[in-house]
Design a protein that fits this description.
mainly alpha, 171 residues, 0% strand
């Protein structure tokens, strides 16, 4: 009977966590990757003091059908039960991360244009986040030489001016 009550308690915790978390849906074109979703809900999972197997079960149960298929195919011939909690998290972070190349991230970062009718601080915060993701601080001189050739000079100067202006506001 003690074992049954422990199982019932564990099942109740599992159901409680499932009801409080959103399903994960992967979209490779968006930055709302697994890592962001996981950071949002990790404390909830940890607060329930679930064992590793149950934590893993929670994560796998919250994948939408397409994401589950992708995950299952990636770990095959293993099953989710064969993976530890850390292996599951690491694998999901790897396969459900944004699939943009660093070049594309940088290109998109430099293409952002400030619309004077928008709030400058919101634009600056978005630009700063995108520049961090694009690792703009690691651009070499040779890489930076590409920018004038990729954008018309007037737009390029304006974009660089906006980036500099945003940087000085955020510093």
């Amino acid at each position: 009977q003690g074992r049954d009550s422990t199982r019932t308690s564990s099942d109740n915790l599992f159901q409680n966590v499932l009801q409080r978390m959103d399903k994960f849906t992967y979209n490779p074109e968006k930055t709302n990757s697994f890592d962001l979703w996981f950071r949002r809900f990790n404390d909830l999972i940890d607060d329930q003091q679930l064992d590793e197997r149950t934590k893993t079960k929670v994560l796998v149960s919250l994948l939408d059908d397409d994401s589950y298929k992708t995950f299952n195919t990636h770990i095959s011939p293993q099953t989710p039960n064969d993976l530890s909690w850390q292996e599951t998290v690491t694998t999901m972070k790897k396969i459900f991360s944004p699939q943009k190349s660093l070049f594309k991230k940088r290109f998109e970062c430099f293409r952002q244009i400030f619309n004077p009718s928008d709030d400058f601080n919101s634009f600056a915060n978005l630009l700063n986040a995108n520049c961090e993701e694009a690792e703009v601080n690691k651009i070499t001189d040779d890489t930076f030489k590409f920018i004038p050739n990729a954008f018309p000079p007037t737009n390029g100067r304006q974009r660089i001016s906006n980036i500099q202006r945003a940087g000085s506001r955020l510093s």
